[in-house]
């Protein structure tokens, strides 16, 4: 699954964003000190870890959107 494919049934509104979201996932995990398995399968990870990654991703995406709406620059 490390090739950017996901088992999720969620579909992205902008499919080209998949690679950027994957990169963001790995950046956030690294910042939190959480190791994502090499095969990309997160099924054996602790729920607390995956939730922390998802929560930080959401915060970062909201922050980026707020900056764009206010006329600010990217991250």
UniProtKB/TrEMBL annotation:
Keyword match Chaperone: no
Q: Which UniProt keywords apply?
A: DNA-binding
What Gene Ontology terms describe what this protein does at the molecular function level? double-stranded DNA binding
Q: Which residues form the signal peptide?
A: none
Pfam families in UniProt: SASP
Classification via InterPro entries: SASP_alpha/beta-type, SASP_alpha/beta-type_CS, SASP_DNA-binding, SASP_sf_alpha/beta
Membership in a protein family: Belongs to the alpha/beta-type SASP family.
Q: What does this protein do?
A: SASP are bound to spore DNA. They are double-stranded DNA-binding proteins that cause DNA to change to an a-like conformation. They protect the DNA backbone from chemical and enzymatic cleavage and are thus involved in dormant spore's high resistance to UV light.
The protein depicted here goes by the name Spore protein
Say which species the protein is native to: Paenibacillus flagellatus
